[in-house]
Hints:
The chain has 15 helices and 12 strands. By secondary structure, the protein is α/β, with parallel strands linked by helices. The chain has a 6-stranded parallel β-sheet. Strands 1-5-6 form a 3-stranded parallel β-sheet, with helices on both faces. Strands 2-3-4 form a 3-stranded antiparallel β-sheet, with no helix packed on it. Helix 2 (121-139) links the parallel strand 5 and strand 6. The N and C termini lie far apart (52 Å).
Amino acid sequence: MRKEDMVIFSVDDHIVEGPTIFDQHIGARWKDEAPKCVESDEGFTWVYQGKPSVNFALNAVAGRPREELGFEPNRFDHIRKGCYDPRSRVDDMSVNGVFAGVNFPTFPGFALEMFQDRKHKDLNTAIIQAYNDWHIDEFCAVAPDRLIPMVSLPLYDIDAAVAEMKRAIAKGARTVTMPSLPHQLGLPNIHDDYWRPLWKLLDEERVPISIHISALDSTGTEHLTLDSPMGAFLTKAGLASMAVFAEWLWSDFIHDYPHLKVILSEGGIGWLPYTLERAELVHKNHGPWMRHNWRGKRPTDVYREHFISCFIQDEAGVALRDLIGVETITFENDYPHADITWPNTPEQLWNGEFQKGAIGQRDIDLISHQNAARLYRWDAVDRLGRENCNVAALRAQSGHVDLTPLKGGGKPPAEHSGTVRARDILRLFPQSNTFKTA
């Protein structure tokens, strides 16, 4: 097998929403109240109910020099067109050798947390439906074999959430994004029976849940101080997925839904062997007094049946794939954020995690695309032929893509010399409570 023969499927990328996304999809009753993308001297900001969003483009820095990979882009001309335009996105995927991808929202939060307020239920439901329609009918429809539809739900009303999920499934949705820990938004915790109608539907329809790492409480940010170097925060980002995983792994309800899958988006995989070993030891040493019913299974069995892990760069994790379960591992590109390896993803995978093919074609194929295709029930590679979807074929059709590095634009992450600290990032997002700092 050669590097050029790989087929690459990314289970976690991001969209920077353009200013017109609601124009064609929200009814006249709500049009004036829909979020607006407002331009000022500081750049673009989305405003909803009089409140600005935490960010406009977040960390959309693909194509910049490494010295400019911060959080500062705040105008459309500061970012690649592929961040917000679906045709340009497909071009950027092709030049990077990536065949297919799933995309999370940006300005409203990765699970549309901005619209999860019960106070304006009817309006929020209309906005969430409009966002889903734009995502499926405009963004993904540009390249239906390559852009996999992800939707969000009005989680404050379980009946409305189930109804919207059914509607979205009929339109082609293949996964649903949910907040990492819903109770932190004032919603019931995941162990509450409130959620069971949704779990039942997702189980029956084989729709996996995508849970992206976040900066909510209990995911590592609570240990930051204003003087904490940003490297400390970024190093422990995987704690967010570990916190989510532990809650779901030890849940009672998950055993009632044999086809329910949880994707731990952007959490990495290197921590999984330890965490699974720890769960096994907890079960062995504490099981008699905790009385948790594993239904005749072990924690590792439950992980392999119900969870999908993801990595951007994780050579240690892939080396330990047999301890994790190679059938549960997927690749994520994270376009257009700073961890991205664009436009050199095939080279990174081939020379790094895949050891220039030494780990074997079976495992390469499972990790690079087959696990994801099975998860989303996505048959494009089978229909189109591998030879038309691999790195060589995609790059052969992308010679027109401009790879000139972007330079300048936006506020620098810090105006002082030395390490960038949490306080510097807070200065970029003055309205944010993203970092819980002491």
